[in-house]
Amino acid sequence: MAAMVASSGISSGTLTISRPLVTLRRFRAAVSYSSSHRLLHHVPISSRRLLFRNIHRVQATILQDDEEKVVVEESFKAETFTGKVPIEEPNMSSASTSAFESWIIKLEQGVNVFLTDSVIKILDTLYRDRTYARFFVLETIARVPYFAFMSVLHMYETFGWWRRADYLKVHFAESWNEMHHLLIMEELGGNSWWFDRFLAQHIATFYYFMTVFLYIVSPRMAYHFSECVESHAFETYDKFLKASGEELKNMPAPDIAVKYYTGSDLYLFDEFQTSRAPNTRRPVIENLYDVFVNIRDDEAEHCKTMRACQTLGSLRSPHSILEDDCAEEESGCVVPEAHCEGIVDCIKKSITN
Fold it and tell me: What is the catalytic activity of this protein (predicted)?
């Protein structure tokens, strides 16, 4: 299966899910990257001021042998904090980025695409006509990286190499969101066959240790790989909605979905959406179609967060910005934040400092 997500550009007034130029081919993996074409654009959170954004378009392209483009109209408004100091995204064509680093980035992305493509081929072969079972496997796999990230970050904190609570908070919120996706698929019967549970659990176990290794060696590579997985999940749900939307509108929503998306405590629901201000997205769940629309939109938010994480130090918790004044005005509120990029950088900084 070949998958590619493409979308309209980013402007200062519009938040979009845009331009994954990572193309997954059936018999080969290739990477295309441009400073003017990025998979997702993350709007940093660094002040209290809110700007209402317009409804935005998402153009998701699912390309197979003879398949046409799929255009998705997103139904929710995005409200974000405006940034005091914009955080620049990595630009491989910039003068400050060495040719060697550019080559490393392309190599990392090429490996990620190959691995993602391999998993997609397995899923396409085993779950061509078993939608909910495929979703169950996909959600079991998709939540694993956040456990791996937190495991490594806790180790770094133990050695005094990392002091960034926002990363732990956001990654836990992401795992909480993916867990509820998994519970929804279980309620729909996606885990009814033992083989599906066996396959999902063993792939997830391998994926966990692989992600831990990648995150220790290169956090950027680990985050990009997770971005590829979340991008595929977005495409999968988008395609499913296009194909089965009318049928889904006549089916009831699972109880766990209603409770998660419309419950009274939505702190963690807001926490994983790092490009949005808290309380700006409140889903309405009336049928199964609404459930899958929100699951798809959740995957888009995960992609944005994973994209932002590839720039060291750019991730902020949506709720932590409310405490900025305290951190700036009262010295007692300031918590030193140490950070490093990969195990080699951590060891080097621990020795020199």
Answer: 2 a ubiquinol + O2 = 2 a ubiquinone + 2 H2O
What pLDDT, on the 0 to 100 scale, is given for residue 99?
82
Spatial separation of the C-alpha atoms in residues 210 and 215, rounded to whole Å? 9
Look at residue 158 in the predicted model and tell me its pLDDT: 86
Tokens encoding 271: 């926490």
**Alpha-carbon span 119 to 203, nearest angstrom:** 9
Contact 2, 25 (CB under 8 A): yes
Low-confidence ranges of the chain (pLDDT < 50): 1-90, 92-93, 95, 325, 329, 331-338
Q: What share of the chain is helix, strand, coil (3-state, %, to 5)?
A: 55, 10, 40
Q: Cβ neighbours of residue 352 under 8 Å, at least 6 residues apart?
A: none
How much is the pLDDT for 101? Answer: 80
- Cβ within 8 Å of residue 121, ≥6 positions away: 1, 26
Kindly give the pairing relationship between strand 22-24 and strand 29-31.
Answer: antiparallel
Mean pLDDT of the chain: 73
